[in-house]
Every structure is written in structure tokens, then in C-alpha cells.
Specification:
Elements (H helix, E strand, L loop, with lengths): L3 E6 L3 H12 L1 H8 L3 E7 L15 E3 L2 H6 L5 E4 L5 H12 L3 E4 L2 H18 L3 E2 L10 H8 L5 E7 L2 H13 L3 H10 L8 H4 L2 H15 L9 E2 L7 H9 L2 E12 L2 E12 L11 E8 L3 E8 L3 H18 L30 E11 L4 H11 L4 E6 L8 E8 L2 E2 H13 L3 E10 L7
The structure holds 1,4-dihydronicotinamide adenine dinucleotide, ligand LTNE7NMQ and sodium ion.
The site of 1,4-dihydronicotinamide adenine dinucleotide has 26 residues, from helix 1.
Catalytic activity: L-homoserine + NAD(+) = L-aspartate 4-semialdehyde + NADH + H(+)
InterPro entries: ACT-like_dom_sf, ACT_dom, Asp/hSer_DH_NAD-bd, HDH, HDH_cat, HDH_CS, NAD(P)-bd_dom_sf
Pfam families: ACT, Homoserine_dh, NAD_binding_3
Length: 439
């Protein structure tokens, strides 16, 4: 049988890695797919730039439309990134009857509903394993491996750049900007690295995970998004003294009234495996009602780790070339006409535990004032840590760990604490998740 011809859009980090992996493992890939897979066409912004890969035998162009419109191309692989041009090209490929593989989580989180509807109308597949947690086959695991479960919640470290920065800062005391520059050199970061450090990339990925876990449409616009830029070494140290690690965590949880969908820095007990996921590695913990907790771990970014997922999707696409379109794995795991309308909850209705750090006057009655405010809001305290004042300082750092409560109640408590005369500055609030099976 003739090999399947692939048209690649973008020959950067992931594009280069994909060419290399497909070439190096061609023989095994053919044995798995039942047909050879060759990259016949590729679009790049410049044709004479040094590349990660050898482009011999690939028809190169600077016009991505040429690839998308070429009748000789069976599958389009979109690896240019970004929202608008990628959307245009993917929809055009679908309209031309081509299957699509993409690593673009921004595209899927924002335009996935439209794209999957178009793909279903055309009877083509849009595969996106590389879009979440790079090389970890998390889409496949949730969509297929856990299909017998009611998924209760999932939590993930799903931005490699952010986790790499936090790890290097914690372990080696390195500066934020210096580690970010290194992540960019390694090809981990997004074209606009604020997507990594402000939590937007993780929110894109969490949006996708929540859809396939709970059977809801993609709703990136409702995700609560907070990045890592405000985490300080002070809080990392205090958290460690209390037995916790601070990680940038994506949390999607099904509760009675809807779905919590949020990414933010989070304290996690250090005994949890996921608290020990460091560097560019990602991990996703999924709680199913039948299987219990399952944990998926691997490289979340990088040329070949991501290419591993792109190529796996290509193999899947080659296999579906011969299956009945109505019997394929649905794009969002659940049949398109059976998605649920559970709302995404506003952050005020989310329930979580908290780490609070405040600067309080070193005088009697202060602790009582704070515990009264928390008590008035029905918030229970789990631990208190009082540190010595730094030399020449009249205020002492006070750290509280609380039990789970509504974010709205915590907002009220923080406003009241900040209004106390004995408190200086703002209260630092970091959410805390125990991540045990039942909470
Ligand atoms: N780098 C990583 O570790 C991972 C990246 N991704 C995603 O993969 C996609 C690609 O990312 P990278 O390879 O890292 O980016 P990159 O910036 O290294 O590569 C993108 C390539 O697309 C090319 N391009 C942009 N506009 C073009 C146009 N109009 N015509 C032709 N070529 C064009 C650029 O010149 C560049 O070479 C993004 O959606 C990214 O979010 C997903 C998982 C991991
Ligand atoms: N910029 C992303 C790349 C992979 O999705 C990350 O750092 O995780
Ligand atoms: Na993946």
C-alpha cells in the first residue's frame, strides 16, 4: 500500500522533532500503522534557516495554503501555533477533506468546538494528543483508557516551562528571568512566554482535559487563570517547613452545582508523588470512581517528547482511514450530541483549602483577632506558624493553613484581616489541595 502523505505546517521545535522521529522510527511506525507515513510537504516561514531536521525529499514552501490545498496531501499537521492563522488553516484543511493533527492547545481550547463540528461534518479526524502534557498520552488515557469511569476530578502540572522555572528557582536559587531564557533556548516555552508564566497555556490544556473528562463543551473563557509570577521564595520556604510544595496546578473538579476549572499556584503535601514532579516534567492525576486515582507522568515539552505524541496521532489517523466515521473515538470522548450543560463555576463558588501569610504586629490579641475573623466566616484553621521578626522589623510573619472553604468566604475574611490595624500590607493567599482520593 502507498504511504500516507503528510503536509507539515511549521518546521520549528515540534515540527523538526516530528520529522526526526518519523524518519528514525520509520520501520516500527509502518509496522504499527500498517502503512508508511512520509512527510511530503512542509511550510516554513523561511526556507534557508538552519533546522533541527534534514528536509531532503520534502517539498518546501513559505505558503501554508499550498500545503493545505495540495490534493497529494492526506493529513495536515499544524505546528505553527497561535490562534487565528492556525484556525484558518485547520478549517481549510478540514474543508478540503483532510485529517488534521495539531499540538496547538490554544487553538483547541478556543476554537475546538467549531473545529470538531466542522471535522464531524466532513467525516475527518482532528487529533490533538500533543496539545496537553506534551508526550504523556493523557488524552488517550482519559478518552479511551478511563471510558468506564465517572471522572470526579483531575489535577495536573501541565506547563513544563513554569515547572522548570519553579524547580530551578527552588533548588538552585536561580533568577526567574534567567531560567525562563533557558527554557526558551530548550524550546519549551510558547512563542509568547507570558502564556507559560501567567497560566494561560495551562488553562488552555486544563480546558481540554475537563471537556474530555466530564463531557462538556470547551469553555476556555470561563477558566480561572493565575500564573507563577507572584510566587516568592519566602512562601516556598514556609510551605516546605509546613510539609508542602508549591506547584502550578490545574484543577478540574465536578461538584453538584457545576465544574471547577482553575489554574493557580497550589500547596500540595510533599508526600504526594505529584508534589515531586520537577523540571520540565508534567503529571496529571485523575480520580475515577471505578479505578480510583491514576497518575500519568512524563515530559511536558521539548522537540521529541512532543513529537512522540504527534506521531502517535498520525498512526491513529492512518488506522482510522479504514474505519466507519460513526464508530470512531469521539473528539471530546463523549458523543457530540450527548455533551452536558453543567456550568463552570465562578471562582467565588470554588472550595479549596488555603495557605495565608500575613505581617502582623507582635502584640497580644492579634492572633485572637484573626482567628475570630476566620471563625466568623466559618473557616477552620488547620495549622499556624509564627516566625521571628526580621531584625529591626516590628511585624512578624504569621502563616495559617485552613481547611476547605468557599473562595467567597475567604475573600471576605481576607478583606477583614487586611482592614485590621495590626496587619501590614496585603495577605498572601495560596490555595492548597490535599489531593487524596476523597477531597
Ligand atoms: N515546544 C514544545 O515543547 C511544545 C509545543 N507545543 C505546541 O506546538 C506548536 C508549535 O510549537 P513550537 O514548535 O515550539 O514553536 P516554534 O516557534 O518552534 O515553531 C513554529 C514554527 O512555525 C513557523 N510558522 C509560523 N507562522 C508560519 C507561517 N505563516 N507559515 C509557515 N510557517 C510558519 C515558525 O516560523 C516556526 O518555525 C504550538 O502550538 C505549541 O503550543 C505543544 C507541546 C509542546
Ligand atoms: N510551553 C509549553 C509547551 C508544551 O505544551 C510548556 O512549557 O508546557
Ligand atoms: Na499528550
Amino acid at each position: 500500500m502507498k504511504p500516507v502523505k503528510v503536509g507539515l505546517l511549521g518546521l520549528g521545535t515540534v515540527g523538526g522533532g516530528t520529522v526526526n522521529v518519523l524518519r528514525r522510527n520509520a520501520e516500527e511506525i509502518t509496522r504499527r500503522a500498517g502503512r508508511g507515513i512520509v512527510i511530503s510537504h512542509a511550510a516554513a516561514r523561511s526556507l534557508d534557516k538552519p533546522r533541527l531536521c534534514d528536509t531532503t525529499g520534502i517539498r518546501l514552501t513559505t505558503d501554508p495554503n499550498e500545503v493545505v490545498d495540495d490534493p497529494g496531501v492526506d493529513v495536515v499537521v499544524e505546528l505553527i501555533g497561535g490562534y487565528d492563522l492556525a484556525r484558518e488553516l485547520v478549517l481549510r484543511a478540514i474543508a478540503n477533506g483532510k485529517h488534521v493533527v495539531t499540538a496547538n492547545k490554544a487553538l483547541i481550547a478556543k476554537y475546538g468546538n467549531e473545529i470538531f463540528a466542522a471535522a464531524s461534518r466532513q467525516g475527518v479526524v482532528v487529533a490533538f494528543e500533543a496539545a496537553v502534557a506534551g508526550g504523556i498520552p493523557i488524552i488517550k488515557a482519559i478518552r479511551e483508557g478511563l471510558a468506564g469511569n465517572r471522572i470526579e476530578w483531575l489535577a495536573g502540572i501541565i506547563n513544563g516551562t513554569g515547572n522548570f522555572i519553579l524547580t530551578e528557582m527552588r533548588d538552585k536559587g536561580r533568577e526567574f528571568a534567567d531560567v525562563l531564557a533557558e527554557a526558551q533556548r530548550f524550546g519549551y516555552a510558547e512563542a509568547d512566554p507570558t502564556f507559560d508564566v501567567e497560566g494561560i497555556d495551562a488553562a488552555h490544556k486544563l480546558t481540554i482535559l475537563a471537556s474530555i473528562a466530564f463531557g462538556i463543551p470547551l469553555q476556555f473563557e470561563h477558566a480561572y487563570t493565575e500564573g507563577i509570577t507572584r510566587i516568592t521564595p519566602t512562601d516556598v520556604t514556609y510551605a516546605e517547613q509546613l510539609g508542602y510544595r508549591i506547584k502550578h496546578l490545574g484543577m478540574a473538579r465536578r461538584v453538584e452545582s457545576g465544574i471547577e476549572l482553575r489554574v493557580h499556584p497550589t500547596l500540595i503535601p510533599e508526600r504526594r508523588l505529584i508534589a515531586n514532579v520537577d523540571g520540565v516534567m508534567n503529571a496529571v492525576l485523575v480520580q475515577g470512581d471505578a479505578v480510583g486515582p491514576t497518575l500519568y507522568y512524563g515530559a511536558g515539552a521539548g522537540a521529541e517528547a512532543t513529537a512522540s505524541a504527534v506521531v502517535a496521532d498520525l498512526v491513529d489517523v492512518v488506522r482510522v482511514l479504514t474505519t466507519d466515521p460513526n464508530n470512531r473515538v469521539p473528539h471530546l470522548a463523549f458523543q457530540a450530541d450527548a455533551l452536558s450543560d453543567l456550568p463552570i463555576l465562578p471562582m467565588e463558588q470554588v472550595q479549596t483549602a488555603y495557605y495565608l501569610r500575613l505581617q502582623a504586629e507582635d502584640s497580644p490579641g492579634v492572633l485572637a483577632d484573626i482567628t475570630r475573623i476566620l471563625g466568623d466566616q466559618g473557616i477552620s484553621i488547620e495549622a499556624v506558624l509564627q516566625k521571628e521578626p526580621s531584625e529591626g522589623q516590628s511585624h512578624v510573619p504569621l502563616i495559617f493553613l485552613t481547611q476547605r472553604t468557599l473562595e467567597a468566604k475567604m475573600n471576605g475574611a481576607i478583606d477583614a484581616i487586611e482592614a485590621l490595624e495590626c496587619i501590614s500590607g496585603q495577605v498572601v493567599r495560596i490555595r492548597l489541595e490535599h489531593l487524596d482520593s476523597h477531597r
